[in-house]
């Protein structure tokens, strides 16, 4: 079993930055594909970014490309999401997810076996 705990969310002005962290316990994540998703009120959960187990490969949604960066520190069992140039439309609950090996695409929720409880990110105009 894996437990994921997100932190770092908050309220920020448009154009500002936040860094989200996802700390894992219960099992090492060094061999696990990791992702970030978000869900805004009244909308479906959507893919934000993902990273391979080594960190060599990263993937981002078009809506955040060039602004958000995913990274990981396997020695700390932690994954990060650096969010720059935030926009009001980035407002959502952000979830960390740990992937399995079911072969589903990395940008789909069904790829991931474990989820955190989420952290709120709110961006003011």
Write structural notes for this entry.
With 125 residues, the protein is mainly beta. It has strands at 3-7, 10-13, 18-25, 34-39, 46-51, 58-60, 68-73, 78-83, 92-99, 112-115, 119-124. Strands 2, 4, 5, 6, 9, 10 and 11 form a seven-stranded mixed sheet that branches. It has a four-stranded antiparallel sheet with strand order 1-3-8-7, with no helix packed on it. A hairpin with a 6-residue loop joins strand 4 (34-39) and strand 5 (46-51). The mean pLDDT is 94.
Summarize, please.
The chain is mostly beta strands and 125 residues long. Helix content is 0%, strand content 50%. The protein is globular, with a radius of gyration of 13 Å.
């Amino acid at each position: 079993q894996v437990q994921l705990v997100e932190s770092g969310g908050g309220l920020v002005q448009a154009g500002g930055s936040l860094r989200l962290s996802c700390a894992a316990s219960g099992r090492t994540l060094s061999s696990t594909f990791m992702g970030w998703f978000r869900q805004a009120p009244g909308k479906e959960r959507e893919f934000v970014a993902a990273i391979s187990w080594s960190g060599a490969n990263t993937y981002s949604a078009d809506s955040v490309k060039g602004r958000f960066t995913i990274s990981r520190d396997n020695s700390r069992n932690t994954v990060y999401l650096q969010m720059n140039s935030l926009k009001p439309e980035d407002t959502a609950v952000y979830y960390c997810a740990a992937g399995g090996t079911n072969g589903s695409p990395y940008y789909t929720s069904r790829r991931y076996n474990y989820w955190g409880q989420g952290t709120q990110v709110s961006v003011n105009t």
